[in-house]
Every structure is written in structure tokens, then in C-alpha cells.
Automatic annotation (TrEMBL):
<keyword id="KW-0949">S-adenosyl-L-methionine</keyword>
<keyword id="KW-0812">Transmembrane</keyword>
<dbReference type="Pfam" id="PF04055">
    <property type="entry name" value="Radical_SAM"/>
</dbReference>
<dbReference type="InterPro" id="IPR038135">
    <property type="entry name" value="Methylthiotransferase_N_sf"/>
</dbReference>
<dbReference type="GO" id="GO:0035598">
    <property type="term" value="F:tRNA (N(6)-L-threonylcarbamoyladenosine(37)-C(2))-methylthiotransferase activity"/>
</dbReference>
<dbReference type="InterPro" id="IPR013848">
    <property type="entry name" value="Methylthiotransferase_N"/>
</dbReference>
<keyword id="KW-0819">tRNA processing</keyword>
<dbReference type="Pfam" id="PF00919">
    <property type="entry name" value="UPF0004"/>
</dbReference>
<dbReference type="InterPro" id="IPR006466">
    <property type="entry name" value="MiaB-like_arc_euk"/>
</dbReference>
<comment type="function">
    <text>Catalyzes the methylthiolation of N6-threonylcarbamoyladenosine (t(6)A), leading to the formation of 2-methylthio-N6-threonylcarbamoyladenosine (ms(2)t(6)A) at position 37 in tRNAs that read codons beginning with adenine.</text>
</comment>
<keyword id="KW-0004">4Fe-4S</keyword>
<dbReference type="Pfam" id="PF01938">
    <property type="entry name" value="TRAM"/>
</dbReference>
<keyword id="KW-0472">Membrane</keyword>
<dbReference type="InterPro" id="IPR005839">
    <property type="entry name" value="Methylthiotransferase"/>
</dbReference>
<feature type="domain" description="Radical SAM core">
    <location>
        <begin position="203"/>
        <end position="436"/>
    </location>
</feature>
<feature type="domain" description="MTTase N-terminal">
    <location>
        <begin position="67"/>
        <end position="175"/>
    </location>
</feature>
<dbReference type="InterPro" id="IPR006638">
    <property type="entry name" value="Elp3/MiaA/NifB-like_rSAM"/>
</dbReference>
Length: 556
């Protein structure tokens, strides 16, 4: 992933104006630089800041960065959003964001703590980077939730609410220092959503904007390690979210994803609610562009069902909800401390299916929770047979260190795998999309399929529709006839002319969102080249351009 969108300079006079604009951007993305000479702080309760090493000078360099950064992400959409923001700030500062880990000077690894395999992959990447002699910075839920683990000892760490300080951490790490920033963002002593949504970012997909509307949650599930990292609920103001959405559409985005650990709980800490936010968002979504609401737990959506049904029927909102049930047995849900019953979950599904015709509801199941009996698991199977969820995320239970469930008597791994296989067989026994065959639907294309010969589009119900790559259809909306259905997809044939939901072209892939002018992004390319050349020559050029500028000003 490149750090800028242009390939070369168009005019040498751009050099003269680069430095001033660089300082303006540094004032936005580097507001917290601190001197920590000869000082080592402790790290109690995961909230303090720590810088240790032998090169602890204050960040004061005016030259743009030239090193390359490799950024890898594990986990949820919230983590993906955090990585987009970190990449954007680093690129805006002049770093080159690369997909080639071997070529990078520093690896930035954004971790997930939900399951053991994700953390195992994270640990393996740290070891690989160290063996290759790379500088390594760790971010995400693993260091935030358990910063004293031996395998990350001595590494620089970026907390989940400190992503706006990634440039500081990277600069200090490249100097040979170890930096830990794990504190929470607070206003008047109250936790907020996190780093500002207006920060520069590099979208993984230029057509899709991911907006984190809140962090943390109100639950205390006995199996969840993420709570240790993301903490209690902290919501962004409605106005800040709406402004980010407006900016996204101004940059050619056609689809917005709202994400958090629990979107249904949004606003409870600031006197707002998810429906209030959604009604304001639909007012700024252009016709043809779409909004997807992220995962919500059952307890916090129950009281909003009437309003949510109206919103999900809105033409600019996908009729899709992700509502994890985790178990079909009340006894297991009680032991998980999920704070709802199977009956309440069923009410959510039944109500939305009645009020939002065709709605697609996805859910999650944990197989092998420590107290889950064979009878409990059978109830889970019956629930899945009843509703035939089109998307069913099956997870084997893994005990996460520090959680109450980890201290419970564990079920044998072979039995957990056996239950997971049974659930998979239930899921494979039905065809969720057969009723769509022959229907005409409107779809929006946002991706290229893995086979590189098809586009990936979604219909109103956020069902995946595969379309032949016959022409440039990216970011376009059009009608298709459904000519084939599979377990995980539909296939459509275009039958109508295409329309562009957004008249603004999207930013080229790898461009930094949030920078005010295209000229500045070109300046970043110039800087990478110019500052690597002979400094005396560059000084002569800059002085010459400055004198030329002053003479023109005096003449006028």
C-alpha cells in the first residue's frame, strides 16, 4: 500500500511550499510529542505512559519520514478501522506504507484477543519480525488487555484509544526507544469514543468508509477478553460521526459501515441512542449510497425494535443485522452472563423478520462453553434449525487468560470439535438463498472477487451477489436478474444501465483521506525523493524559490 497517490512531481516549484504545509499537518497528527530524557515511568493499571531507551530526545525534526512501515491487522472491523487511521497518519507524515514485510523498516502489528489462534498468529509474527531484525510496534487488544506478557516485553505499544499518537510511537521506536501509550481518552473525567474521527486515514477499500461509533460495551461476558482491552462503553457524539460520514461521501465513498463492540449500546453513556444516530445519518447519505449497521447484542436492541425496523426499511440502509446469540440454551447464556434469554433473542428475530421483509440476520455460536451440557448444545442445534440463519459464525470455545470462564472446568477439545462439526452439518443442510432464484434486484458493486474475474456486489439485504466483470462497474448501482444461487452467494446478470450513486470519484487506492488538497499529497511524494538527495542542492533550490516568491510579492 503506497503512502501517497501520485507517482512523481509535476513541477519543481512544489518544493517551495512543501515545508509550510508539512508543519501544518504535523500540528494535526503529532500534538502530543513529549520529552522523556533519562526517565523511566512505571506502568500501573495499564494507564500510564512509558518511554525507555537511550535516544529519548523530544520529537522536533522538520524533515519528513522516509522509512517504510508494514502494517498487519487481525480481528474485527473496529480493528480494521484503527489500522486505517494509523496508516493514514503515518503516510501523511511521510512514511511509506508497504505490503511487503521484508522491505519494511518497522512492523506495526494490530492484534486481536478474542481467540487463541489469532493471538498465536500475532505472537508468531512478532518472532518473525525480530528474527529478521525489524523494529516491531504492537497495537490492538492484546497489549492493551495484557501489557505485561513476556513475549511483548520491551516492545513499543499503542493502546486502542491512543492510535492518534502512532507517529510518536513509531518515531521513538525507530530511534531505538521503547514506548508504551495505553491510557484512555477522557473528557471531564468521562471516557470518550477514542481518537478523533477526523484524523487522516487510508481506506483499505476506497469505496467503503468504516466508522467506529463507540468503543467498549456494557456487558461483562465471562468468556470475553476484549472487555479487558476496550473497557466500558464510550460513545462518539452524533455530530462527529455525521461529519465523518459527510467527509467520506465528499471523497467518493458509496458505502458506510458502522462498527463497535456493540452498536446497540451506542449513546447510552451520552444521552443518545442508535436510532437517533441512524436517523441523522440517513439524512446525509446520497441516493444510491448505502449504510450497514454493525453487530449488536440482543439486550440493547430490544427497546429499539420499532425504530430499527423503520430504519432498516429505509432505501439507503441495508436490511441486515448481526445479532450474536452464542447459545440456544438459557442455562448456558446465564453462565456466560449474556443478560438475555433465548426467548428475547427469538423475539428480536421474529419481530424484524415480520416488520422488515427479506431481512438477513446473521448470528454467532460458541461451541463447547465450559458449562454447556449435551442437552444445552441440542437446544442450540434446534434454534439454528428453526431460523436457518443465512450467515452463521461458528466458534470453538477457547479459554482466554484472566476471564472467569478460563477458571471453569473445561470440556475436552475432542468433544468441542465434535459439537462444532454437528453445528456445521446443520448449517450445510439448508440452502438460504434458493428462494431468490429468478428475482430482479438492485445491487451495489464495491469489491473484486478473489477469482479476479467477477465483481462482488450486495443487494438490499446485504447478500453477496457475484457479477461478471464485463466493464467498469466498481462503485456502480444497477439491476440484475438472479440466475444462480449457492450456499454463500447469488449470481446476477445485469439487465439495466448502471448509475453512479456518488458523482465524486473515490480516492485512488492508498491515498490519504482527510488531507485538504491533492497538492499536499503530491508534496509528500516530492519530499520522499527530494530529502534523499544532496541537502546543499536542496537548500539552494529552496532559497531560490523563496527569493522568487518574495520578488513576485514585492512586484504586486
Amino acid at each position: 500500500m503506497p503512502s501517497q497517490c501520485a507517482e512523481e512531481l509535476d513541477d519543481i516549484e512544489d518544493i517551495a511550499t512543501f515545508e509550510a504545509r508539512l508543519q501544518s499537518t504535523k500540528a494535526v497528527i503529532l500534538p502530543h510529542a513529549q520529552s522523556a530524557k533519562n526517565k523511566r515511568n512505571t506502568l500501573p493499571n495499564n494507564t500510564d505512559e512509558e518511554i525507555e531507551g537511550k535516544n529519548q530526545d523530544e520529537l522536533s525534526s522538520n524533515a519528513p519520514a522516509r522509512e517504510s512501515i508494514y502494517l498487519k491487522t487481525w480481528g474485527c472491523t473496529h480493528n480494521s478501522s484503527d489500522s486505517e487511521y494509523m496508516a493514514g497518519q503515518l503516510a501523511a507524515y511521510g512514511y511509506n506504507i508497504t505490503d511487503l514485510c521484508e522491505d519494511a523498516d518497522l512492523w506495526l502489528l494490530n492484534s486481536c484477543t478474542v481467540k487463541n489462534p489469532a493471538e498465536d498468529h500475532f505472537r508468531n509474527m512478532i518472532e518473525k519480525g525480530q528474527k529478521l531484525g525489524k523494529q516491531v510496534v504492537v497495537a490492538g487488544c492484546v497489549p492493551q488487555g495484557a501489557p505485561r506478557q513476556q513475549y511483548i516485553k520491551g516492545l513499543s505499544m499503542i493502546g486502542v484509544q491512543q492510535i492518534d499518537r502512532v507517529v510518536e510511537v513509531v518515531e521513538e521506536t525507530l530511534k531505538g526507544n521503547s514506548v508504551r501509550l495505553l491510557g484512555q481518552k477522557k473528557v471531564n473525567g468521562k471516557k470518550t469514543g477514542g481518537a478523533a474521527l477526523s484524523l487522516p486515514k487510508i481506506r483499505r477499500n476506497p469505496l467503503i468508509e468504516i466508522i467506529s461509533i463507540n468503543t467498549g460495551c456494557l456487558n461483562a461476558c465471562t468468556y470475553c477478553k476484549t472487555k479487558h482491552a476496550r473497557g466500558n462503553l464510550g460513545s462518539y457524539p452524533v455530530s462527529e460521526i455525521v461529519e465523518r460520514a459527510k467527509q467520506s461521501f465528499d471523497e467518493g465513498v458509496v458505502e458506510i459501515w458502522l462498527t463497535s463492540e456493540d452498536t446497540g449500546a451506542y449513546g447510552r453513556d451520552i444521552g443518545s441512542s442508535l436510532p437517533e444516530l441512524l436517523w441523522q445519518l440517513v439524512e446525509v447519505i446520497p441516493d444510491g449510497c448505502m449504510l450497514r449497521v454493525g453487530m449488536t447484542n440482543p439486550p440493547y436492541i430490544l427497546e429499539h425494535l420499532e425504530e430499527m425496523a423503520k430504519i432498516l426499511n429505509h432505501p439507503r440502509v441495508y436490511a441486515f443485522m448481526h445479532v450474536p446469540v452464542q447459545s440456544g440454551a438459557d442455562r448456558t447464556l446465564y453462565e456466560m452472563q449474556r443478560e438475555y434469554t433465548v426467548g428475547e433473542f427469538s423475539h428480536v428475530v421474529d419481530f424484524l423478520r415480520e416488520k422488515v421483509p427479506g431481512i438477513s440476520i446473521a448470528t454467532d455460536i460458541i461451541c463447547g462453553f465450559p458449562t454447556e451440557t449435551p442437552e444445552d448444545f441440542e437446544e442450540t442445534l434446534e434454534l439454528c434449525k428453526k431460523y436457518k440463519f443465512p450467515s452463521l459464525f461458528m466458534n470453538q470455545f477457547f479459554p482466554r487468560p484472566g476471564t472467569p470462564a478460563a477458571k471453569m472446568t473445561q470440556i475436552d477439545r475432542k468433544e468441542i470439535k465434535k459439537r462444532t462439526k454437528k453445528l456445521s452439518e446443520v448449517f450445510s443442510s439448508y440452502e438460504p438463498y434458493g428462494h431468490q432464484l429468478g428475482k430482479r434486484q438492485t445491487v451495489l458493486v464495491t469489491e473484486i472477487a478473489h477469482d479476479k474475474v467477477h465483481y462482488v456486489a450486495h443487494n438490499k439485504y446485504y447478500e453477496q451477489v457475484i457479477v461478471d466483470m464485463e466493464e467498469d462497474l466498481m462503485g456502480k448501482m444497477f439491476e440484475v436478474d438472479i440466475i444462480e444461487t449457492g450456499k454463500h452467494y447469488l449470481r446476477g446478470r445485469r439487465v439495466a444501465e448502471v448509475s453512479s450513486p456518488n458523482s465524486t470519484s473515490p480516492l485512488p487506492k492508498g491515498c490519504v483521506s482527510g488531507l485538504k488538497t491533492e497538492i499536499f499529497q503530491q508534496d509528500l511524494v516530492m519530499a520522499k525523493s527530494a530529502f534523499g538527495k544532496d541537502r546543499i542542492f536542496l537548500l539552494v533550490v529552496l532559497v531560490g524559490m523563496l527569493l522568487s516568491f518574495l520578488s513576485k510579492q514585492l512586484a504586486t
